[in-house]
Amino acid sequence: MNILTETKHLLLKEIRLEFRQKYAISGILLYVISTVFVVYITLGQEVGGAVWAALFWIIVLFASVNAIAKSFVQESPRRQLYYYSLSNPASVILAKMIYNGLLLLAISFLAFFVFSVVVGNPIKYPWLFYQTLALGALGFSITFTFISAISAKANQSATLMAVLSFPVIIPMLMTLMRLTKISVGLMTDSAYYKDMLILLCIDVILGALAFILFPYLWRD
Questions:
Q1: Which residue stretches of 87-125 are H helix?
Q2: In 3-state terms, what secondary structure has residue 122?
Q3: In this structure, are residues 36 and 62 in contact, taking their beta carbons and an 8 Å threshold?
Q4: Cα separation, 133 vs 172, whole angstroms
Q5: Which of 45, 67, 76, 210 would be a feasible disulfide site paired with 146, CB 3.0-4.6 Å?
Q6: Residue pair 100/56 in contact by the 8 Å Cβ criterion
C-alpha cells in the first residue's frame, strides 16, 4: 500500500473518530463562542482594528492548541503499536496534519464568522485576510501536530508542548498580525506578498522537518 492510499485511510479514520467523540468538537465550539461573547460583554461593539486582530488570533491560537494537543496523546500505546506494524510513519504524520489543518481551518472561519456577527467586521481586504487565515491554520496544524507527537513521548506533555511551540509560534504570529493589520487597513504595504511568502516558507520548512524527524520519533 503506497503512502497516499495509507494517508487516505488514516485520514478517514481520524474523521470517523472525531465524529464518534462529538464532545471534542462541541468543547472547541463552546470555547470559541463563549470567548467571543466574553469579549463582547467586556468591550462591546466598539473594538478597534488592532484590538480586533489581536483578540481574534488569541482566540484562534488557544482553540488550535485545544484541538491539536490530543492528536497523539489520546492514542494508547497498543494502538500506536498497531499503527506501527501496518503504516508508514510518513502516512501517519501526513494524515494527522491534513486532518488538523482542515479542523483548524473550520475553527478559524467559525471564529471569524462569530466575531464578525457579535463584535463587528473591520476587514477591508477580505481575500488577503482569507489567505492569511488559511496559511495561519496550515502553520498551526503543522507546528502543533509535530510538537504533539514529541510531547506525547514525555510525561509532562502539556508543559513540553507549550515550551517547544513558543519559539516557533511567535514569528508566525507576528507575521499573521502584520498581514491582518494590512487586511484591516491599519497598515499600507504593497509588498504584503513577501509576508505571505515568509509564512509559506515557515510552513514548508516545518513540514519538511516533521517528515524527516517523525520516523525516528515513531520508532521510539
A1: 89-118
A2: coil
A3: no
A4: 12
A5: 210
A6: no
Query: Residue 61 in contact with residue 101, Cβ under 8 Å?
Result: no
Output the pLDDT for position 196. Answer: 86
Closest CA to 184 of 55, 94, 77: 55
CA distances from 1 to 13, 58, 85, 91 (A): 16, 41, 13, 11
Cα 181–Cα 162–Cα 101 angle in degrees, nearest 5: 60
Cβ atoms of residues 72 and 217 within 8 Å: no
CB 140 within 8 Å of CB 104: yes
Residue with cell 516558507: 201
| pTM reported for the whole predicted model | 0.84
How many Å apart are CA 149 and CA 143, to the nearest integer? 10
DSSP assigned state of 190: T
Q: 7-39 burial string, b = 16+ CB within 10 Å, else e? A: beebbeebeeeeeeeeebeeebbebbeebbeeb
Per residue in 89-125, pLDDT (tens digit) is 778 888 888 888 888 888 888 888 888 888 878 888 8
pLDDT digits (tens, 9 = 90+) for 124-174: 888 888 999 998 888 888 888 888 877 776 655 566 666 777 788 888 888
Measure the CA–CA gap between 36 and 31, rounded to whole angstroms. 9
Nearest to 141 by CA among 169, 172, 104: 104
